Amino acid sequence: MSPDELQLQLDALEKGDYFAQDSDELTERWRSSGVGPEAIPIILRFMEANPHLDYGIPGALVHFMDEVDAGSYDKELMESIARRPTLQTIVVLHRLINAATASYRTTLLEVARKVTAHSLADEEVIEAVNRILHQYKT
User: Fold this and answer.
1) What is the pLDDT of residues 85-111, one digit of tens each?
2) Can you tell me the distance from the alpha carbon of 15 to that of 121, in angstroms, rounded to the nearest whole number?
């Protein structure tokens, strides 16, 4: 499936009334079609463009990313957060922080810390980051 097709399918979800259910069905179709890690940057850009959606915690799209890339999409996630942090990408970052080794956790917490000064981070995102930083007492 081409990147444009993946993007069109995500864009169609944004217009629907049942995002959580529809995204679950979409990721099932992607699994059946053999879609893999190539979808991750498209998903992250979609999250950046649609911060208002209720993705779930963490939601079907995040579960899909975990399955197809086994949590090794850190670099793409950090790039996404640098472009435009959203509540959903911060949720994903928090999951990575929780699972990280102590030394790598320090790097991920620094990414989180930078969000508090990001010009596109809204109040909800900053509050979520502050809760993470407080949890790890940084």
Assistant:
1) 999 999 999 999 999 999 999 999 999
2) 24
What is the Cα–Cα distance from 76 to 45, expressed in whole angstroms? 10
Q: Exposed, middle or buried by CB within 10 Å (0-12, 13-18, 19+), for 50?
A: middle
Pick the closest to residue 78 from 97, 54, 101 (CA basis): 97
Cβ neighbour number for residue 129 with a 10 Å cutoff: 25
Domain count, the chain: 1
Query: Token match 């793409």: residue?
Result: 76
Query: How many other β-carbons are positioned within 10 Å of the β-carbon of residue 36?
Result: 14
Burial of 71 (0-12, 13-18, 19+ CB in 10 A): middle
| pLDDT band of 122, cuts 50, 70, 90 | very high
Q: What is the total residue count of the chain?
A: 138
Say how far residue 9 (Cα) sits from the centre of its chain: 17
Residue 71 is which amino acid?
G
Domain of residue 124, residue span: 3-135
